[in-house]
Amino acid sequence: MSEVQLSMRGTPGYLAPEWHKVLGHVTVKVDVYSFGIVLLEVVCARRNVDHSQPESAFHLLRMLQNKAEYILGYLDECIQSDREEILRMLEVAAWCLQDDPERRPPMSTVVKVLEGLMEVDSNLVYKFSHALTPPPAVMPIFLQHQASVF
């Protein structure tokens, strides 16, 4: 006898938005979303859900959505010298974190982008774009040509 699981299961903080919809259609793109969260964790050098942080920074993605600071302020100092790789990872993370699962890339494409064989889709839509682009006066020079990607 087979059983259909109708309840949501997964690790808090890694669940794609469609898991939270009552009748949301769940596909393999939920894993792509989770991978986007993992990329943010790697780049920001912190857990997605960190109970040791203040409430406003408890969830990494929510913090990036709500804070006025831009994302490079959260990067590990050890990786600041690898700016091109960091920006590529942030672009891939943003692509993976699209609210609409149809807009997320397949993992085979993610691998090609991370290997430098493909470019990230330039038509990204996501809610933390304001967190990635500081006012022009404080934007580091190396980001000025990249900010339009986000």
Q: N-to-C SSE series?
A: HHHHHH
Q: What would CATH call the homologous superfamily?
A: Transferase(Phosphotransferase) domain 1
In total, the number of strands is 0
**What would you say the CATH architecture is?**
Orthogonal Bundle
**Poorly predicted ranges:** 128-150
Q: What overall form do the CA principal axes indicate?
A: globular
Strand content: under 5%
Please explain how this structure is put together:
The structure is a single chain. Helices cover 35% and strands 0% of the residues. With 150 residues, it is mostly helical. The protein has one domain (17-149): Transferase(Phosphotransferase) domain 1 (Transferase(Phosphotransferase), domain 1, Orthogonal Bundle). It is globular and about 40 Å long.
